[in-house]
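hi! just following up on the protien thing from before. the input was this:
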Amino acid sequence: MDEPSPEHGLTRLRSTLRLLYHGSSTMALRFQFSVLLVDLAIIAFFIATPLLRDRPSFIWIDIAVAVLLIADLVARALASTDPLRWLRQPTTIVDIFILITLLLPAWLANFGFLRILRLWTLSKSGVLWRPLKKFKLTQYREQGEAIVNIVTFLFLVSGFVLTFFGSPETGIEGYVDALYFTVTSVTTTGYGDVTLPGTAGRLTSIAVMIVGITLFVRLAQSIFRPNKVFFPCPQCGLQRHEPDAVHCKACGHVLNIPDPGN
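and the predicted 3d structure came back as:
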């Protein structure tokens, strides 16, 4: 018998990974849920990084996370039907940059705060929201995305503030101080006990307040007045529609969006 060629083996591997990452079978859903749990653990590590950086075990955890991200990126590339197109996607580029900060921590230490963007890439790729579909809770996706955006923004800015403004003179001596400044700025509470010095500090504070307020307004809108509902059109597949839509705005197909009150 002829031995299987390497090309045939690679084709089978890609097919298997495609079914695991994008399929809807019981095995695929279990795999996707397991991957999601690992991703959330990695994000928790990224959030806790400023508190763990001085511990001896930090570098080994950092390396382990880098290995997991490499495995995930390679697997997703193989599972993609168009790897080059997948490679050009913004979420993939962000994930690759996060991986580089893990592989070169000594040279890119000042960019470590960008690792929290992994939460944003998971949200945009849809990985975070697959469990909602399984439990028929897709109507809450918009609220979930708004929460992810504000959480990502808070921790992203906190890491930036700690990296570039942390010092006894500014009152920002640790991660909690940076997070405290970010939250008080975003909510416009402005206690004044922690401030960023100089023109750069003022411009940073202004940007934090403007973007933060925008994200909070968006969060409030998604919770109290959702703009869209998730209901795939049977004709064209468009997923977002007005809550009272009768026809799909893309193709005109008649919709039967269920009443959330029923």
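The mean pLDDT is 85.
Residues 137-227 form a domain with the Helix Hairpins fold (CATH 1.10.287.70).
cheers
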